[in-house]
Design brief:
Elements: H1 2-6, H2 40-60, H3 62-73, H4 81-92, H5 101-130, H6 132-137, H7 139-170, H8 180-191, H9 200-228, H10 239-273, H11 279-291, H12 295-319, H13 332-337
Helix pairs in contact: 2-5, 2-12, 3-4, 3-10, 5-7, 7-8, 7-9, 9-10, 10-11, 10-12
Length: about 350
């Protein structure tokens, strides 16, 4: 944390009561901003940021994801991360490490649109329903509920491509197509439309807890970093300094995300590989220890992924000049009720 603080050039300055800026949730379109906070354009541009954030990062880590999936479903053959990479390159060459990149790019771009776009919609909508004071007091619950609502729809968008990706990556050599244009028709011919959604429930089980942790932990970590580590208020930080905080908070959130969602991730991989298997079958076949197979590489992957996703998403907001409200602060009305307001 000391290293993080050292990245900020100006020392902390005393803050007078009249200088404290309350969190504005109604930023209007001005020369500083390209649109009004909460407008249709705002949500649409947030969705663009989400598409780039998830699509680019997940596609970039396809090799790690490939080996992680193989560790989960074939632990007898693939002993560890290094062994998994070595065997994959030996059998398929270096290009084999990018197997499944197309469904990954398409699926996670669609997921990112819904995940980030709907999160902003639900967070603003639920906050309005709760009222300003309750939205602050119960802000962690607000982040959890808004992110869970968004991920519900995001996984419906992701599921078809996830089914193709996992089947391509985990099937034995020569037993299943290695391109999306051949894999999708084969799944449809064998199982119908249900084949693309058979692992939707465990996907929800993996992604909803993951996303709840991703957003709630990120929001509260950003708040904590500005309050306890960053040596000056957020509005005195440059855009680049703010993005450093975004990256750090994203990585911290990513580690917790990986742990919370890993067992369900293993079940998803197993079910997509084993045709006709259910959740109970997968859990029984894997066992408790098997459910945690591949956790190490997944922590590396998800920690890096989550940090980069938040960095890209916030960076897109900066480039598109979107309103970026500061971390939550206590409303003046609540300060007055609690006797904290300064005259």
């Amino acid at each position: 944390m000391d290293r993080l603080a050292s990245l900020f050039s100006n020392p902390i300055k005393p803050i007078q009561a009249e200088e404290v800026k309350t969190r504005s949730m109604n930023a209007a379109a001005t020369e500083e901003y390209s649109c009004e906070f909460g407008s249709g354009k705002y949500y649409a541009l947030c969705a663009v940021g989400g598409a780039l954030s998830c699509g680019l990062t997940h596609t970039a880590v396809t090799p790690l994801d490939l080996v992680k999936c193989r560790l989960q479903v074939n632990k007898e053959k693939y002993k560890n991360l290094g062994n998994g990479f070595k065997l994959t390159v030996a059998e398929q060459g270096a290009k084999g490490l990018m197997l499944g990149w197309a469904p990954t790019a398409i699926g996670y771009t669609a997921q990112g649109i819904c995940k980030f776009g709907f999160y902003e919609v639900f967070k603003n909508t639920y906050a309005g329903m709760m009222g300003e004071e309750n939205a602050f007091l119960y802000r962690t619950s607000l982040y959890l509920i808004a992110s869970a609502s968004a991920e519900f729809f995001a996984d419906i968008a992701l599921s078809p491509m996830e089914a193709c990706k996992v089947r391509m990556q985990t099937s034995g050599l020569g037993t299943f197509p290695t391109t999306l244009r051949e894999a999708a028709p084969k799944i449809y011919a064998a199982e119908g439309i249900a084949g693309f959604y058979k692992s939707l429930v465990p996907l929800w089980g993996r992604q909803i807890p993951y996303t709840m942790m991703k957003f709630a932990c990120f929001e509260r970590t950003v708040e904590a970093l500005y309050a306890n580590v960053v040596p000056k208020p957020r509005d005195e930080c440059s855009k680049s300094e703010q993005l450093v905080v975004t990256f750090a908070a994203g990585y911290i959130a990513g580690v917790f995300c990986a742990i919370v969602s890993h067992p369900a991730d293993t079940v998803v991989s197993y079910m997509n590989k084993a045709s006709g298997s259910g959740i109970g079958d997968a859990v029984k076949a894997l066992g408790f220890k098997g459910l945690w197979g591949g956790l190490g590489p997944r922590i590396i992957m998800i920690g890096t992924l989550t940090a980069l996703q938040w960095f890209i998403y916030d960076g897109v907001k900066v480039q598109l000049r979107l309103p970026r409200p500061p971390p939550a602060s206590m409303p003046e009305s609540l300060k007055f009720k609690l006797g904290l307001a300064q005259d």
